[in-house]
Amino acid sequence: MSNIPDSLKYTKEHEWVASTSSALVYRVGITDYAQSALGDIVYVQLPKVGQGLTADTVCGEVESTKSVSEIFSPVTGSVVAINNDLTSAPETINSDPYGTGWLFEVSVDSEPNNLLSASDYASITA
């Protein structure tokens, strides 16, 4: 059974979203379920700081020893930070997908309302 923290919001494409200490800035990563399904992650392509993102569109990719998976932006907004540590250590996503394995942060105009609760997400991964 994968780890699905109650404090986060989720997408059907297996991304998680967490609020940050900055108003209307959200941190994004892939879920424990997604990293487990991918296997050993060897490369991550992230969006660029300043890049505009549209919810539910591809903004990067995660490559593992098994396959390449697209990253979908869970929100519409502008990228304000990326996790540069993943360039040299993409496997961090496997060991800590909800912590040091985060992908990027997005500044949005309003609080997102299109995301799943932990229990809703759990029901699609069961």
What does this structure look like?
This protein is α+β, with helices and mostly antiparallel strands and 126 residues long. It contains four helices and nine strands. The strands form two sheets. Strands 1-2-3-9-8-5 form a six-stranded antiparallel β-sheet. It has a three-stranded antiparallel β-sheet with strand order 4-6-7. It is globular. The model has no long low-confidence stretch (mean pLDDT 95).
Keywords:
OB fold (Dihydrolipoamide Acetyltransferase, E2P); six-stranded antiparallel sheet; 4 helices
Give me the secondary-structure topology.
Elements: E1 9-10, E2 15-19, E3 25-30, H1 32-38, E4 41-45, E5 52-53, E6 58-64, E7 68-72, E8 77-82, H2 85-88, H3 92-95, E9 104-107, H4 118-125
Antiparallel strand pairs: 1-2, 2-3, 3-9, 4-6, 5-8, 6-7, 8-9
